UniProtKB/TrEMBL annotation:
Protein name: tRNA-2-methylthio-N(6)-dimethylallyladenosine synthase
Localization annotation: Cytoplasm
One matching Pfam family: UPF0004
PANTHER family linked to this entry: CDK5 REGULATORY SUBUNIT-ASSOCIATED PROTEIN 1, MITOCHONDRIAL TRNA METHYLTHIOTRANSFERASE CDK5RAP1
Domain of life of the source: Bacteria
GO cellular component, one term: cytosol
UniProt cross-references to HAMAP family, sorted A to Z: tRNA_metthiotr_MiaB
Subunit structure: Monomer.
GO molecular function, one term: metal ion binding
Domain MTTase N-terminal: 34-152
Main location: cytoplasm
Cofactor note: Binds 2 [4Fe-4S] clusters. One cluster is coordinated with 3 cysteines and an exchangeable S-adenosyl-L-methionine.
Length: 470
């Protein structure tokens, strides 16, 4: 089979890097260190993209500012998943008129998933004249070219057209954390769940070549990274476009075989593509963390079908059984949508009963938010808002109780965890291998090391304990 995915030629990335140097020379004509502020919204995929945008910015000579005030360049990497996310971005973009008034040279850029929506681009054009550059996620690799166009033409630049997604290797990366790293293994999504904007704004599914992924993980392991998360909207369809006969379980084995002491996490798994092969591989790979994020979205098979999810409630529950039979200690987390158009009260009760049956360690609950251009936007939606909100609150409350109960089981036990920082209260923060947050009494010298923690207390959101010496 021919490889369908468009790969950006290395010479093209080299050209982008040369443009970074040109921008640096241009910026050097004005005195002082140039500062960039990068503000990231949305999912880990966007976090990972921002690290590459920072890589380019560093190459252009920018240092990083923790705030937009006084920054020479502001870059908002946006999310379009729900109305609320978009409103926050518009609010923050609006507020930038003030910072730009105080600092007229400021260059304001907006990229990410919102930028790929025509109505957003139109609104930015008409109502936000202080925004200089807008580009969609598929054009991230061209950021140096686009910024140079803006700086030299004196005109606003909008690169928001629907271009086919590609895979670009060799973009520099400035990572935000010294222990944890994101590694995108694929981009885009082919699933077109009827509520979801992602396939429209991120384009079709495309996988990075295994050798590129493995080289990146090897480098991270050698640099001492201890917690590596493989990213994709549906990691279980990794490799399908490559025509190499490789799949995600194979990739996990290859990553697991890389020398070094690090944990492997991944997200997201789609229930329609996850199964025994994945669970067996997770169980057999000692570096793969005992945690799975397996979004169920609804407990009703009828709603799942209307969502175009490709599995039933029964199939989902059988997956959970299979998984727990192989990895009894698995930490299981999920996403759910309340108030999908046409969801009846009875169907919502099936979601309640599913969380009762599965007992997730943590659950991300979302109220349905209509997204422009998706099929669900046009579906009849008779349930009153108040009823949806009441359902949402009930679900949240019950899940909080379950999370609390599940956390109590840790009390009295000793768990390995990676210490990753210090909170404002002076306590250390850490994560168990299963990804549970732990607040620890201990020496700040422990940051960046694995420690055994004795858990003395637990709340809904976190565990509390002490470092066990020796
Ligand atoms: N690719 C991942 C999900 C990415 S989006 C997957 O398929 O699991 C993260 C979560 O946002 C989704 O799991 C879903 O629960 C929620 N979500 C997506 N679109 C939404 C919408 N229009 N309204 C409310 N929640 C939504
Ligand atoms: Fe959206 Fe569905 Fe793709 Fe996830 S799998 S990104 S929910 S379309
Ligand atoms: Fe948001 Fe785009 Fe991620 S819409 S959730 S940032 S893929």
């Amino acid at each position: 089979m021919l490889r369908q995915t468009l790969t950006i030629a290395p010479a093209e990335i080299a050209r982008q890097l040369a443009l970074c140097d040109q921008i640096r020379a241009l910026l050097d004509q004005r005195p002082g260190q140039k500062l960039a502020y990068v503000d990231t919204y949305g999912c880990q995929q966007n976090e990972a993209d921002s690290e590459r945008l920072r890589g380019y910015l560093a190459r252009m000579g920018y240092a990083f500012s923790p705030t937009e005030e006084g920054a020479d360049l502001v870059l908002l990497n946006t999310c379009a998943i729900r109305e609320h996310a978009e409103q926050r971005v518009f609010g923050n973009v609006g507020a930038l008129t003030h910072t730009k008034r105080r600092h007229p040279e400021q260059v304001i850029c907006l990229c990410g998933c919102m930028a790929r929506q025509d109505h957003v681009a139109q609104r930015l054009r008409q109502s936000f004249p202080h925004v200089d550059l807008v580009f969609g996620p598929q054009l991230l690799w061209q950021f140096p070219q686009l910024l140079l166009d803006r700086l030299t033409s004196g005109k606003r630049v909008f690169a928001t057209e629907d271009v086919p997604g590609a895979v670009a290797e060799g973009i520099p990366v400035v990572r935000q954390n010294r222990q944890k790293a994101w590694v995108s293994i694929m981009y885009g999504c082919n699933n077109f769940c009827t509520y979801c904007i992602v396939p429209y704004v991120r384009g079709r599914e495309r996988s990075r070549r295994p050798e590129d992924i493995l080289a990146e993980v090897r480098e991270l392991a050698q640099a001492g990274y201890q917690d590596i998360t493989l990213l994709g909207q549906n990691v279980n369809s990794y490799g399908k476009d490559l025509g190499l006969g490789v799949d995600f379980a194979w990739l996990l084995e290859q990553v697991n075989a890389i020398p070094g002491e690090f944990l492997i996490r991944f997200m997201t798994s789609h229930p329609k593509d996850a199964g025994a092969r994945l669970f067996d591989t997770m169980a057999a790979c000692e570096k793969v963390a005992p945690v799975l994020h397996l979004p169920f979205q609804s407990g009703s098979s009828r709603v799942l079908q209307a969502m175009h999810r490709g599995y039933t409630r029964e199939h989902y529950l059988s997956l959970v059984d299979e998984l727990r039979a192989r990895i009894p200690e698995i930490v299981l987390t999920s996403d759910v949508i309340v108030g999908f158009p046409g969801e009846t009260q009875e169907e919502f009760e099936q979601t309640m009963s599913l969380i009762e049956t599965v007992r997730y360690d943590a659950l991300f609950t979302f109220l349905f938010s209509p997204r422009r251009g998706t099929p669900a936007e046009r579906m009849p939606d008779p349930m009153p808002k108040e009823q949806k909100s009441a359902n949402f609150q009930r679900l949240l409350q019950r899940q909080n109780e379950i999370s609390w109960e599940k956390h109590q089981r840790y009390v009295g036990g000793i768990y390995r965890c990676l210490v990753d920082g210090q909170g404002t209260d002076g306590r250390l923060t850490a994560r168990t291998d299963g990804g549970r947050l732990v607040h620890l009494a201990g020496d700040p010298g422990c940051i960046g090391t694995w420690q055994n923690a004795r858990i003395t207390e637990a709340s809904t959101w976190a565990l509390f304990g002490d470092v066990v010496e020796g």
